[in-house]
Hints:
This protein is mostly beta strands.
Amino acid sequence: xxHLVESGGGLVQAGGSLRLSCVASGITFDDYTIGWxxxxxxxxxxxxxxxxxxxxxxxxxxxxxxxxTISNDKYKDTVYLQMNRLKPEDTAVxxxxxxxxxxxxxxxxxxxxxxxxxxxxxxx
Length: 124
């Protein structure tokens, strides 16, 4: 059974930093693309950053480029999202997601497994 468990969300002031972690179990890490989506109230779920754990290909949404960094630790089956220079518009529930693919899939509908979500709130 596949489980994705996120942690690291919270309340931070604009300009601050947070690091999200997603621990995966029940999957062969190298066979999956794993990443982060977010959903703000009244908005659609959007891809924030994704990584192909096989070849290390990475995607960032334009809105987070230069501020967020995704990384993975294959020995710990964990994906991280380091978020710096946070803005109020980054406020959302952040979800870890995984799909059995060695290439990056950008649409949320392409992901089979989801974590429970972690709230990130950035105050102005």
